[in-house]
Design a protein that fits this description.
The structure is a homodimer. Chain A has about 130 residues and is mainly alpha-helical. Chain A is elongated, with a radius of gyration of 18 Å. Chain A has 2 domains: about 70 residues, Orthogonal Bundle (Arc Repressor Mutant, subunit A), CATH 1.10.10; about 35 residues. At the A-B interface, helix 1, helix 4, helix 5 and helix 6 of A face helix 1, helix 4, helix 5 and helix 6 of B.
DNA sequence: CTAACTGTACTATGTGTCTTAGTACAGTTA
DNA sequence: TAACTGTACTAAGACACATAGTACAGTTAG
């Protein structure tokens, strides 16, 4: 269920945060549902419990999940909406990347062609 | 001429590499031209000479520049083409980012609109 | 030739982040 | 009561990044 790349430059706890957000966005983890416990998940993916705790803490602070001592960590009711609005802010990253490609001499055609091919691909699976 | 963000997660030497590549792509640093010396640039942007050396070494290994002991570091004749082909490989990063946004629930319209607005803006300054 | 420059190669040190390890405490629940 | 839950610590190690200082060899202008 989780894939951790220990060699990546992005920290493990951040990889966990990203993947949980994706699971929620995809509807695999439903709102209100309980996440694996800190300890069980740490064993499952061979990572220290502290690292999981850090990931859950980050999700909590984003309002994606809510942790209750003694009970567990649960997906918040409006989690998907929060993730979506966070992602919308990431459109600036898209802007930066496209500008970088343009400045490096990549043609508009190549860029637009790439974006179109993905967005249309996703259209089919609708 | 150089702007270093010491707080960024991307290493200083990498920021230098990026900015030099941009200067070359933009035609400000021309092919065959000599870059500032390791020591002078280190003073100019208040960074350790070793950090500059690491940046120049990276550029050398990419074939963007060529360093000659005793003479200096020079922009290679085919530098712009090398940068462009490297950037083309980065189209996969664009793919990944767009897919991430889609999965997070951002609409195709928002994505395409963002890309179009940038590419058309650059069209004007042609 | 000399002096001042060039890149390069080291060692040593400090720092910050990430991760692991271990322990402990309080709340929840079957 | 026992086994679970999240949480909060301290301590230690690993690693990349950056700084500091020194040294060497090649180049070049005077």
């Amino acid at each position: 269920m989780f894939t951790i790349n220990a060699l990546s430059r992005t920290p493990v706890y951040e990889q966990i945060v990203d993947q949980i957000e994706k699971l929620i966005s995809a509807g695999i983890l439903k709102e209100g549902e309980q996440l694996p416990s800190v300890r069980s998940l740490s064993i499952q993916i061979s990572v220290n419990p502290n690292t999981i705790q850090k990931a859950y803490g980050e999700l909590d602070s984003r309002g994606i999940t809510g942790s209750v001592p003694g009970r567990g960590c649960f997906v918040m009711p409006n989690a998907r909406e929060r993730i979506k609005s966070r992602a919308k802010e990431k459109l600036s990253a898209l802007t930066a990347l496209v500008e970088e490609l343009l400045q490096a001499g990549v043609s508009r055609e190549d860029i637009i062609k790439t974006v179109d091919s993905i967005t249309s691909k996703k259209e089919e699976s609708k």
